[in-house]
Specification:
Layout: E1 8-20, E2 27-32, E3 41-44, E4 48-55, E5 64-67, E6 93-99, E7 104-110, E8 121-127, E9 140-149, H1 154-161, E10 174-177, E11 209-212, E12 217-224, E13 230-235, E14 240-245, E15 248-255, E16 257-260, E17 265-271, E18 280-287, E19 298-304, H2 326-335, E20 352-363, E21 366-371, E22 374-376, H3 383-388, E23 422-424, E24 428-430, E25 435-441, E26 454-458, E27 463-470, E28 489-490, E29 492-495, E30 499-506, E31 511-517, H4 520-524, E32 528-533
Parallel strand pairs: 1-4, 3-8, 9-12, 11-19, 20-25, 22-23, 24-32
Antiparallel strand pairs: 1-2, 4-6, 5-7, 7-8, 9-10, 12-17, 13-16, 13-18, 14-15, 14-17, 18-19, 20-21, 25-30, 26-29, 26-31, 27-28, 27-30, 31-32
Length: 557
Amino acid sequence: MALAEARIRRYKWDVKYEFKSPDCYKKLVITINGRSPGPSILAQQGDVVVVEVTNGLVTENLAIHWHGIRQIGSPWSDGTEGVTQCPILPGDTFTYRFVVDRPGTYLYHAHYGMQRVAGLYGSIRVSLPDGMAEPFAYDYDKSIILNDWYHKSTYEQAAGLSSIPFGWVGEPQSLLIQGRGKFNCSKLASPTLDPTACNATSSECLPYVLTVIPGKTYRLRISSMTALSALSFQIEGHNMTIVEADGHYVEPIVAQNLFIYSGETYSVLIKIDQEPSRNYWIMTNIVSRNATATTPPGLATLNYYPNHPKRVPPTGPPAGPIWNDVAPRLAQSLAIKARQGYIHTPPPKSDRVIVFLNTQNKIDGYFHWSVNNVSFTLPHTPYLIALKENLHHVFDQSPPPDRLHDFTNYDIHRVANNTNATSSNAIYRLKFNTTVDIILQNANTMTANNSETHPWHLHGHDFWVLGYGTGKFDADNDPKKYNLVNPIKKNTVAVHPYGWTTLRFVADNPGVWFFHCHIESHLYMGMGVVFEEGVERVGKLPSEIMGCGKTKGFKRP
């Protein structure tokens, strides 16, 4: 698409706290122009998106990440506080400007502290240029964001994670579908002083209704913005065909339910071909964690027109998958391949292999998550500015390890003998244009017989998913099983309990890019790394991203 045709899509956002009751329980929620989820960004491939963000949070900094947008030529607009920019101060206005260079389904969300959990998130839908067609047909296009929801504020959650004794965030109070859920008000732990704190009849927590016309085909863009939970999504009585993942076309897969991890997006097609005189349940369930006693399923209504949208389906919601059955989740991961005719084959071999062992550790008695026993901390001066301005003293210059020194003998099925870790703000320097393999290796946590699911998200890139496996990665034999023929490209991928996942990407996007677990509490506890590549090729940095750490004098009016 010629640049001359590129349109500019302008958005003006006012971010502030408001009282909302998305699951009937009233709490402070971060809103954009009064809404949570925020407004959808709708654009066409090649458009320039300009978002002018005013931070009205009064006592909090802010940064917004455009999840799945690669920021080619605009690494300072990635919206990652501490990595690509100083945060937006209360009262300040910051303008994000970037090109949406690929069609597909993407997200945006807060990337400062644990703010995302407070409700700052939304969807980005990029359509094909005029005259170009998708490789599948549908009549209507709808976006649905799935989320989990906590009643405790992000401050209470973060304070618990940083305390001795450790205060875990626990399972969410409810699951939201397109920003709406249902908390059972009679379950409030103690009678609250505010009688209006939970109102089961509030219009804000009426279930989300998707009204559909019999005989038509719908494209549903399903994305997950959960703080913690892995989810299963299903529609009663309807199969769905998976056709897109993270902006890439999938060889179609028919499924009864979709497993989706935080930070992932999928498009599914559904045919409205069931008994038309009734409505059907849309449902989400937590998988991979035992939340059966704590978190009820998320429920919405598939409303067959002309039935009344509030008409309750005559059957009970279907049973969700068994929470600890890993096999079907691994099977779905393995089944997702690039669509014929849309395959980008990966480079046949890599220049560098980095093994990231995912571990849970302690540092000075505090709980942390780590990679190769190193827990990540952000410096006060963002890496992008530090590297461009040659401020070498603001973060640790020694390279972090490409693998645990004793990985060969590490037993992933037991609690480690020594669970102590170190914390560091050192980063991985990648040679520009080289091919990098990342092997994510899961292991036991500090609890016996426990290994968690971690969705890993890479900023600034899509990667090829070359393979998944169970148990410990075997460097001699497992690479022989890699799919180099039609691997899917993604920006977020899960590593399953006691398993491994391999991804490959080309370090061809000048900038500094975060790679981290998309579970908000795990990232807060240090589960991430930063990659630098070709930073000398980055253009002149805008002064708006400066003003913190050692860049205090850099922000000129």
